[in-house]
Design a protein that fits this description.
The complex is a heterotetramer, with 2 copies of chain A (385 residues) and 2 copies of chain B (322 residues). With 385 residues, chain A is an alpha/beta fold. Chain A contains 16 helices and 8 strands. The longest helix of chain A is centred in the first third of the chain and has 26 residues, at 34-59. Chain B starts with a strand and ends with a helix. In chain B, strands 9-11-10-13-14 form a 5-stranded mixed sheet, sandwiched between helices. Chain B has a 4-stranded mixed sheet with strand order 5-7-6-12. In chain B, strands 3-2-4 form a 3-stranded parallel sheet. The chains are: A alpha/beta (385), B alpha/beta (322). Bound molecules: thiamine diphosphate (2 copies) and magnesium ion (2 copies). One magnesium ion binds next to strand 5 of chain C.
């Protein structure tokens, strides 16, 4: 038999609650208890509202560049809902909804985008990592975190999120390959929202799916409707079960769409059609759940109105907390560099100078020393202004 | 002559050289329809077609590795790396291949390529969007490293880079992308790579700087009321040590200003060389006004990190008082 | 239909002339004309003998570290045989047999491993690239070279070789992904020889095949017996046909084995069993073809003896040419850096000093200048010794 | 006390610290059964098991990225990069993450990790097996950079690194891996990171060096017949400027010696700082004996590239004659 079969693979696509309101009972029944569903819906709505608040903050100069999560709430939320609270969740920057579900305070995320490292000081009990700006790099950390936990006898797994664009980075390949070959239980979730800034996803993969990126490593791969909270929950449940029980990685593609601009610095109308966006607006993950809940009498307009008010207050409070924090001090970026700050950095911090005569004015003639002192005092006063 | 900002000057240089040289191709993340996140390549895909101006997958090593192959194959690729913070993944292709190809093949293969990279701080950007890694590449033999500080220079230096037979890292200080305009000739001109520009002449002290910091230096000089000579290096490697040494021999004092961290920043090389070449003429130790030896902080504190006119002023005063 | 099929794939394995001498007529008949087969056999034998010569050169101090190709001759040769002479062949360091078939002079390869860059000055007409030491990096160059050729209207394709180990590098992923998404016709060949130095291939991929690494990118993937010249030829033919006609990349895994140490600096007995090596010796690609030719009366012992003599002479001549080249001069590594050497480098070259007083002794007091001149002259004399 | 070479001293340090600290794990290419291509980890997998000493896929970014995760998760990983030339693919994980994690998370996550890397030339190796990139990492805030020059130092510095709460690049000069032996105590000792060693005292001139070059310096000093003080930096960042300045204030003259290319090598920082701190005491410009600003040539010419005792001698003589 000169031609034999060396390998065969098949990837399934999961959809439970579609945009037309069709619900698949076989997969969906009992998947999410009603009480949970309401909470999940509220979480998505709240995340969406915060996105709008953040947008306005940016536009009014109270926040820097901010990446809206709008339209993608069901992806990370499905994952966060399925994971154990002490599993690692290692995300990028469009997974706010999942992070908030984990308990990450909203002000942390706001603070980060306000240009403050303290927003990234993720408290340990949430088992989440900081926001990652360099794309594709965090999945390796997810593997390391999980391996460390296993080393210490904890049976944690990790779930790591990254975009369609980020899956083009070499580190993506290395992370999947390490996890597979070194047997590290990580669920890799590619959040395919069809765009990487202005780059359409076909430039990041010409293959029919992103899910098949996991085949290289022999991982079980699944694609799901990422705008369908039931599908993301179902798919994550299967993936997490597999990964937790075998100790091996698995791969999920969640097909979703970025309804907003890439970030507040972007203008998506330059590169994509309104028609495309409109089509996806009709597939909004939040609307879908709301209609489903209404049909099942779990939800009504009064509840919706009450929720809107509650969310507005909650998010305003989060903004207030983020803006209310005392300003960081310039000593902070020195003190944060090492567990013990090297002497040379102490001098830089204490003088705020790098030039040697500024660092050590004793080298100057006496009159000049006095003047240098005065200049330093003036500069300090100006800086505190 | 047109009154252009730095972005427009670069755009113009690209258009004019692409029209002359069909072997120039542009590639990178979001450079096509979107014209790049800073709009530097705005309109170029429309003008030159998708074959000459194309978006790539999101992978910097891939962008540079592909470009190296394009260059080995006889083209002059102009890859854009979206921010200097994302040069990291491409470091190996740049330093292990682009920089070495000519030498390791004794000229059988060469890499004429111009890597365009927005650089530096001051624009309120997220992490890894505000760094200044020029010294890393100046320490890597086989590369040339350029950093303009004005629209006029930007055009002349870019045209020169696009005609170079060896790889050039062309750093674009994003802080001054749109900060000011100046007259930029439509006509062809090049500025030689390796030659500094004397921005203003003076006899009391020499300032050496490059990139966006040149602006802070000019502010400090204006305030100082002293006769200060400002040298804008324009190119970091090869660098115009003759111009620097000549000036310092005259003034006897020097302040070097850059955004990158102090330790092993390119200022250290300039300082060391000044000592070597002007030892007997030096009346005070060369002073370096630089970024601190910390990670560039998130933007709430970035202005505390970046050398500003005040710090330059202080260094001038101290150096003169010595 | 909540569960649908998003993707399916199947990878075939090709074997034509197996280690027991079975020959598959359906695939193999007419594949390689007899006259060619003899030449290919001779090429493999010659490459094998050169490996032994190089080994002895290294052991006797006449060459630095050298990676033997022994056992893998049929992989790159199959590719070189199938490719057009002006297709790019972008290899690593274990593809000597294919390179020699291309016309690369043997002394070039020897010279390279003798620590001389001139060995890497591959003459253009062979359309091959220099030897690559940094693993996994060359495949991107293959894509670029091919894209450049297409840009210029040439219908070249490229074939690029890399090891099982190298396929773990991030650049591997980026190269495949770029080729697929930007539609660059490259045949990617993973030469799986089961080891990356001491690291068994399962640590570089836990998946059943290396061939499936191409599925990520939607490429057609094939595995073949890499010790079977007919199989490598057949597989390459199909892959090259596909890639040339579609302008799209394809992926091939050639399963082979490194019979020697990793390099002359390695001692493979530290990490692998003799039994494993012996089993693979029985699958030697050269023996297989010889037995087949003998059975077909294309070859006999007399021819073998004559060939051995011819090869020995040829290879000895190549060694003589490599060793006979005049020594490189230290000015070379300065002059090779840039098209036009910067002034600062001229000074370094001409003084062979980096310290400023050595570069410009005129700064020294007159007596010292004289002494410095003398020291420089002494040093130059010593260096020419 | 045992008479050990540098490889053995490192091996011993690893064994002793691994026995004390169960959180230390070793990983890298070929470090397990094979004991690493230089045999530095010989016997360790057997001794500590595959959980603590394991081979990885062939991917340097992966090795460092995984290690960062391990460190964030509470372990102290000790990744080996097979040769310094293969740090390139890991540059981004080192500089964008390992170096920044503490600062960008304000201490919520830290990266205690010791990256072991054979470094430098002189062993007749293929391309990219002979470089000296220490300045690149010294220019990257957040890292510590160590390079021992003897078995005794190697052990003491490695033990210190293995107890560091921040990432350390521990460069091992491969040229002296087996060049000589010295007495290395079995007993626990550490050498502080950030402190130099005065190898020999002198009054005429100071030499500052590190790594394998220290040996060439010693040869040159012996030959010179002069009273020369030799300072082995031991750690490149943080570096012991106090020791250097104190010595140069005494001698008034200084030669810095390293293998890396001259321009922006760490010698430039030392030279600049000496000028800053010892301006009035300096009797001659600081001299730098370094690799040339070229790619390290293939091995036929590597000895022409590397600074040798003759070049050091010449610099000493010139500096003294000035
Ligand atoms: C290594 C790296 N390269 C480039 C960038 C700049 N950048 C930020 S977001 C982005 C697109 C990301 O696309 P994708 O991964 O699909 O995520 P999405 O934004 O769609 O959620 C780019 C190119 C970056 N942050 N990191
Ligand atoms: C980027 C990089 N990392 C590490 C090395 C050191 N190294 C040389 S060969 C080798 C193993 C290569 O294995 P493989 O790719 O399977 O090729 P083979 O030697 O088996 O042909 C290693 C780790 C290298 N040359 N380049
Ligand atoms: Mg996306
Ligand atoms: Mg192999």
């Amino acid at each position: 038999m000169p031609i034999t079969t060396a390998y065969e693979a098949k990837i399934e696509r999961i959809s439970i609650l579609d945009e037309k309101g069709n619900f698949d009972d076989k997969l969906g029944k009992g998947l999410i208890p009603d009480a949970d569903l309401v909470k999940l819906y509220e979480a998505m709505s709240s995340c969406r509202q915060l996105d709008q608040v953040a947008f306005r903050l940016q536009r009014s100069g109270r926040m820097g560049t901010y990446p809206q999560n709008m339209g993608q709430e069901a992806t990370s939320l499905g994952a966060a809902y399925v994971l154990r609270k002490d599993d690692w969740m290692v995300t990028c920057y469009r997974e706010n909804c999942g992070l908030f579900w984990r308990g990450v305070p909203k002000e942390a995320i706001l603070l980060h985008w306000m240009g403050d490292e303290r927003g990234n000081a993720m408290p340990k009990p949430h088992w989440v990592t900081p926001i990652y700006v360099p794309l594709g790099t965090q999945m390796l950390h997810a593997a390391g975190l999980t391996m460390a936990a296993r080393y210490k006898g904890e049976d944690k797994i990790a779930c790591t999120f990254f975009g369609d664009g980020a899956s083009s980075e070499g580190d993506f390949h290395e992370a999947c390959n390490f996890a597979s070959n070194l047997k590290i239980p990580v669920v890799f979730v590619c959040q395919n929202n069809f765009w990487a800034i202005s780059t359409p996803s076909k430039i990041n993969s010409a293959a029919p799916t992103f899910a098949q990126r996991g085949l290289s490593y022999g991982m079980p791969c699944t694609q799901c409707d990422g705008n369908d909270l039931f599908a993301t929950t179902y798919t994550m449940k299967k993936a997490v079960e597999y990964t937790r029980s075998t100790g091996l990685p698995s791969f999920v593609e969640m097909v979703t769409y970025r309804l907003g601009d890439h970030t507040t610095a972007d203008d998506a109308s330059r590169y994509r059609d309104k028609a495309e966006v409109d089509a996806w607006k009709a597939r909004d993950p939040i609307i879908r759940v709301r209609e489903y809940m209404k049909a099942r009498k779990l939800w009504d307009d009064a509840k919706e109105a009450a929720l809107a008010t509650r969310i507005e207050e909650e998010n305003a409070a989060a903004v207030a907390r983020a803006e209310g924090i005392e300003s960081p001090h310039r000593a902070d970026f020195f003190d944060a560099m090492y567990a013990e700050i090297p002497q040379d950095l102490v001098v830089q911090r204490d003088t705020m100078q790098t030039h040697s005569l500024g660092q050590d004015p004793s080298q100057l003639p006496p009159e000049a020393q006095e003047r240098a002192r005065q200049m330093a005092a003036d500069a300090a006063a100006a800086a505190h202004h | 002559m047109a009154n252009l900002n730095l972005v427009q000057a670069i755009n113009l240089a690209l258009i004019q050289e692409m029209e002359k040289n069909p072997d120039i191709v542009l590639l990178g993340e979001d450079i096509g329809v979107n014209g790049g996140v800073f709009r530097v390549t705005e309109g170029l895909q429309k003008r030159f077609g998708e074959k000459r101006v194309f978006d790539t997958p999101l992978a910097e090593s891939g962008i540079i590795g592909l470009s190296i192959g394009l260059a080995m194959g006889g083209l002059h690729p102009v890859p854009e790396i979206q921010f200097e913070g994302f040069l990291g993944p491409a470091y190996d292709q740049i330093c292990s291949h682009a920089a070495r190809m000519r030498s390791r093949t004794r000229g059988a293969f060469t890499v004429p390529m111009t890597i365009r990279i927005p650089v530096g701080g001051g624009i309120h950007a997220p992490e890894l969007h505000s760094d200044s890694p020029e010294a890393i590449y100046a320490h890597t033999p086989g590369l040339k490293v350029v950093m303009p500080s004005s629209p006029y220079d930007a055009k002349g230096l870019l045209v020169a880079a696009l005609r170079e037979p060896d790889p050039v890292l062309y750093f674009e200080p994003k802080r001054i992308y749109r900060a000011f305009r100046e007259e930029v000739p439509e006509d062809e001109y090049t500025l030689p790579i390796g030659k500094a520009r004397t921005v203003c002449e003076g006899t009391d002290l020499t300032i050496v700087s490059w990139g966006a910091s040149v602006i802070q230096c000019m502010q400090a000089i204006e305030k100082s009321g002293k006769s200060i000579e400002l040298i804008d290096l324009r190119t970091i490697y090869p660098f115009d040590m003759d111009a620097v040494a000549e000036s310092v021999r005259k003034t006897g004092r020097c302040v070097v200003v850059h955004e990158a961290p102090l330790t092993c920043g390119f200022g250290s090389e300039i300082a060391a060389r000044i000592m070597e070449k002007c030892f007997l003429e030096l009346e005070a130790p060369v002073q370096r006004v630089a970024g601190f030896d910390t990670t560039m902080p998130y933007y709430k504190l970035e202005l505390d990190y970046l050398p500003d006119a005040n710090r330059v002023t202080r260094a001038i005063e101290d150096c003169l008082a010595y």
